[in-house]
Amino acid sequence: MATLTTRTTPAAPTPRRSALPSALPSVLHRLEQRAAGETRWLLGHALPRMGVQSSARSGDLHGRFIAATDDAETWRLIEEIRAQGALHKSRFAYVTTSLPVVKEVLTSNDVRSGVEFTPDSGLWSRAARWAFSSTPIGPLTPPSLLVTEPPDHTRYRKLVTRVFSVRAVQGLRDRTEQIATELLDDLEARARRSPHTPVDLVAEYCALLPVTVIAEILGVPTAERERVLRFGTAAAPSLDLGLTRGTFHQVEGALREFEEWLTTHIAAVRRDPGEDLLSQLVTAQDDDGALLTDAELKATAGLVLAAGFETTVNLLSNGIALLAEHPAQRQRLLDEPGLWPNAVDEVLRFDPPVLLTGRTVERDTEVAGHTVRRGSMITTLLAGANRDPEVFTDPHSFDVARANAGDHVAFSSGRHYCLGAALARMEGEVGLRAIWDRFPDLALARGAARRPTRILRGWEQLPATLVR
Description:
It comes from Nocardioides nanhaiensis. The chain has 18 helices and 12 strands. It is an alpha+beta fold. The protein starts with 19 loop residues before the first helix and ends with a strand.
């Protein structure tokens, strides 16, 4: 018997709404952000690096100086530039190693902080305005104190100075000494267990001391301090020129992550302020009763981290290395401990944490007897000025008792003088004195390496044996 089968026509599927239109804005935003980042790298790093390399090949001293990767070559080129006079005109910028001229430039109202490599008009200028409008908050982006000028700079600095006063910093000394003692206790226990095994003083001491202090200043919970340390380390190259594409995007990623973290952290501080300095900044009012905005607070906190942490790591590592290399100077400090504050200034003079800073001329002006046109760039070689033979006797000698060691410009000068100078000096004095008091036989081991950053000067690794 035949079987009757019935075939039914399947129901038409219910039309599904495409997900593409709703996802499209997000996709386009990511593509735009990626394109903006690539443009920032191209204009801010790739093209300037090509220009520097070209000028270096042609023999231009400034180009050779920027391109130099060897520390000895850096110092040789500083002296070659010095030999050209108080103000040397290079292919891209004026350069000076003269301490009086450096101070003249940094205090002038005819210049502003930062440098620009983008043409004033045309396609490149429009591309730059578009791309840099989405730059993550960092040490070199407004409203950071490093790159703002009066009247905004005056308002920010006045508010922040109230919090970072010398008195406030001195109030941190006891806590800094306690932190140093705890870190050295750990190092001593390790050294006793394995006396011949070197420890990396940068990772185990020079970084941990200032990051702990800065974390307490910012009210960062103990559990998140390792995160702050990573942010600071990752963002350090942000001050440099000519970053590779990979390094640039790593830096921007770290800055964005730090900005997101700061947004959450500042909101928590607003809800429940404590006794830390960030809590005081959150509630600080100017003469008109206005508070710092969230953007201003994030920029300030980011600058405190970058300037107050990274440069102090360099100060401590440079100081330890110098004293290890100069046993007679070290012995003098052990015999005359009252020299420690002066010794910190001599470390800052002889091997400063920041190599140079740049300025752009706002209007035609005169510098060191030269007419300098609007738009010109001036590179002030802070390290060179700190060894100006017209100011410092026997400038290439390290002398902890040098009478005018404090005349250096390691903290810049003028309205952009480092806000954290008092904090850095205090941490440098406490940190260096504590480690040499505890380990007078400290000896550097093989494997020391300078940081790859160009503007920030310090040690990336500083292996040492602590006891004999």
